[in-house]
């Protein structure tokens, strides 16, 4: 290819994706990113949430490259050359993030797995909160019954002093 287009386009895409990252960070545009940033940094779920955002962000580069190829009006031979160039650059870019070529192929599956892990963690946390509330409620009821017994009063409810 004798044009500067692929080089300029890859730089434009990189800048655009970097802008997305900055906007997501500064303006709370990404719930995934903020969910990870406000998780306990020592927990495994923090790493999982951050990896999910990272994978989505890296994948955004490839989506934008595909858009650039699709939107470009040119001959099929030039499109094939663009695909080849972008694919090589993307593979090199992803390898700099310590992802393998295999990882690139399974980004979608990996994102689904990470989302599932986050979902399981969220459900677990919700169940823990429900249990805590239930224990606190039971403790409050029992304390009220104990207080009523200590004051020599009658208990309301099923027990009514039949001990």
Describe this structure in words.
- By secondary structure, the protein is mostly helical.
- It has one domain (5-150).
- Helix content is 77%, strand content 0%.
- The chain has helices at residues 5-26, 31-37, 44-71, 76-95, 101-105, 107-150.
- α2 (31-37) runs antiparallel to α3 (44-71), α3 runs antiparallel to α4 and α3 (44-71) packs antiparallel against α6 (107-150).
- The longest helix is centred in the C-terminal third of the chain and has 44 residues, at 107-150.
- It is rod-shaped.
- The mean pLDDT is 79.
Assembly type of the chains comes to: single chain
Strand content: under 5%
Unreliably modeled segments:
none
Question: Distance between the terminal alpha carbons, to the nearest Å?
Answer: 92 Å
Radius of gyration, whole Å: 28 Å
Listing every helix as H and every strand as E from the N terminus to the C terminus, the arrangement reads: HHHHHH
Number of strands: 0
Largest sheet: none
Query: What is the average per-residue confidence, as pLDDT, rounded to a whole number?
Result: 79
Number of helices: 6
Morphology: rod-shaped
């Amino acid at each position: 290819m004798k044009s500067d287009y692929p080089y300029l386009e890859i730089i434009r895409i990189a800048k655009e994706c970097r802008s997305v990252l900055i906007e997501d960070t500064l303006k709370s545009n990404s719930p995934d990113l903020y969910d990870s940033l406000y998780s306990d940094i020592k927990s495994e779920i923090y790493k999982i949430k951050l990896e999910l955002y990272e994978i989505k962000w890296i994948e955004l580069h490839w989506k934008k490259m595909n858009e650039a190829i699709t939107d470009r009006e040119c001959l099929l031979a030039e499109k094939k050359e663009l695909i080849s160039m972008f694919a090589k650059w993307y593979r090199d870019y992803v390898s700099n993030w310590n992802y393998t070529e295999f990882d690139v192929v399974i980004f979608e599956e990996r994102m689904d797995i990470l989302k599932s892990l986050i979902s399981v963690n969220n459900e677990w946390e919700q169940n823990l909160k429900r249990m805590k509330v239930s224990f606190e409620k039971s403790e409050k009821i029992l304390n009220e019954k104990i207080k009523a017994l200590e004051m020599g009063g009658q208990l309301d409810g099923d027990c009514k002093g039949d001990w």
